[in-house]
Here is the input.
Amino acid sequence: MTDVYLNEKFIGSVDNPENFVKKIREERRRARVPTIVNIYYNSKVNEVYIDYSNGRARRPLIVVEDGKSKLSEFHIAQLENNEMTWDDLVQQGLIEYLDAAEEENSYVALKEEELTPEHTHLEISPVTIFGLITSLVPYSNFGQSSRLNRGSKTQKQALGMYASNYLMRMDTDVSLLHYPQTPLVRSFMHDLSSYDKHPAGQNVTVAIMSYRGYNMSDSIIINKGSIQRGLARSTFFRPYSIEELRYSGGLVDEIGIPDKEVKGYKSEHDYRFLEEDGIVYPEASLREDDVVIGKTSPPRFLGELEEFSIAANVRRESSSAIRHGEQGIVDFITITENEEGNKLVRVRLRDQRIPEVGDKFASRHGQKGIIGAIIPEQDMPFTASGVKPDLIFSPHSLPSRMTISHLIEALAGKVASLSGRYINATSFNAEPQEKLRKELLELGFRENGTEVMYNPITGEEMKARIYIGNMYYLKLKHMVANKLHSRASGRIQLLTRQPIEGRARGGGLRLGEMEKDCLVAHGASLLLKERFDSDKSVIHIDEETGDIAIVDRHGRRRAQKSSSANIGDVEVSYAFKLLLDELTAFGIYPKIKLKSKYH
Here is the structure.
C-alpha cells in the first residue's frame, strides 16, 4: 500500500499509486478537480503527495499527449482573434500549472521539434525559464547559469530613472543617472516591460584588452574625456527629517536656532546656514557636521526637585546635522504635519557623483568591475578610424567565467550602432551571430569584431588585433563616496572598551589575522603596535599564585591569597580582562603564570 498525504498530512493509502495519480491529473484537466491542486508520486519512498497550500511557486506548461502538443494552431488563431482567453486554455486542460514537486514527475521539452512520446509537457517559450529581470539579458543562452543570476542581480542595482516624479519624492537614499539610454542590443522583454520609460544604463564603446596593468582582476579603465562629457554621472539624494514631539507634562520640542544656554550647544559656525525658523535655506552647500534643521528638546529626566535644580530647567540640543562623510546641496524642503498633528520638517540633499576610482560598473552578463584608473583621452588607445573606447575591459575576465554572451553583445552592439537599428537578442530566438558578422563585413569592418589599434604614447601599431564594440554598461549603486571610511581614536563600547561598529556611527575598522599577515609581510609590523591596542589595559598579577592582585584607591598593592610582595603589571587587551572576570563569575578561577621576558 502507498501512503497518501494531503498538504503534508496523512489521509490514507492507495494500492495502485500510478493509476491514482494519473486519474487525478485527468480529472484536473477536465476541470473536475481544482486547477490549483498538484499531485506528485515519489517512487523512492513510495508516497503520494497532494498539495493545494498557499505560497507554492507554480508555472504554466503546455500539456503533451502521445508526443504531440495539445495546444494546436487552431487554438492560437482563436487566441489571436480574442475568441479564447488564457483561462479557457487552463479550463480545457491545454495548459496546466506545475509546482516544484509535480515537476519531478514531468519530462519537459524546450521546443516543439524536440517532442518524443516520453515527453509530458512543453515550454510555452524557452524564455519562460527566466524571470523578468533575467530575460532582459541579451544572448543569455550563451552565458553560464551562475553568471546569469549575477547579471540579474546587477541590473537591480543599476542606477537609472527609477521614477519620473523623483523631484516630488523623499526617498531614503537613491541615485539618479543623468543621461540614461535604452539598450541597442535588447530582448523582447525590454518592450513588454516598457524599459524605455525607466532605462538604467548607457551604451558605451568597449575595447577588450589589457592596458598598463590598471584593469587587472576585474578592474576597468575609463576614458577621462567620456566622463567630462557626462558618462555615468549621477545625483545622490538623501533626506533629513525632524519632528516636534510632544512629551508628558505639556513639554514639547521646538524647531528653531538653539540658544547659547542650551545644553550641548555646538558652535555658531555649525548653525550658520539656518534661517530664523531654524531650517536651512534652499541651495545651501553643506558639509559634514553642518546643522540642517535646528531643534531643542526638554530635559531628559524630570525629577521631583525640579524647581530647586538648575540643570533640570535647561533644554538640550537635538538638531539634525549632516552625516559623517557626506556633503551636498539643499535641494528641496517641505514643512508639514504627521498623523499626530506634530510639525514635521524634511530637507532633501543632492550630491552630484562623477565617476571616480573605486566606483562599480557592470555589464548585463554578471561581469562586474570597479574603476582601476581614469586615463586622459590623449592616452587612450585608438583605432585606425580614430575611435577611442570609453571603457577598457580585461580579457582575463572571460575564459573562466564563460560569458560568451558578453562577447556577442559587443559584436551586436557594433552592428547596431553602425546600421542605426536595434538588434533583437532575445534568448533562444536572437539574430544569429553569423548574420551579424556578415553585416559587419558589409559595413566595412572585420567580420570578427577586431580592429587595428595604436599605442597612444608611442604611436606604434599594436601587434594584436583588439576586439572592440558597443555594449550596454550599468553604473551600480555601490559608489566609493558612500563607503569611504577611516577613523583615528573615537567612541568606544561600554562593555569591551573597543571601538564601536559601523561607518555611520564613526566606528572602527576591524583588522583581522589576514590583514595582520599582510602588514607583517609588507615590513610594516610596527604599525600593529598602534592597531592592536584599541583596548589596552593593565592588570596586576601575584607572581607566586598567578591570581589577580588588588590595588586600592591609594595605589597600594596586595595579593589576595598570599603575603607575596611580588606583584607584576601585565599589559593585556581589556577584552581578555573581561573574559577573566566572566570566568571568575562562573566559579572558574583563572591563574596567570608569569615568567620574565628576558630569560
In short: Residues 235-353 form a domain with the OB fold (Dihydrolipoamide Acetyltransferase, E2P) fold (CATH 2.40.50.150). The two ends are 80 Å apart (CA to CA).
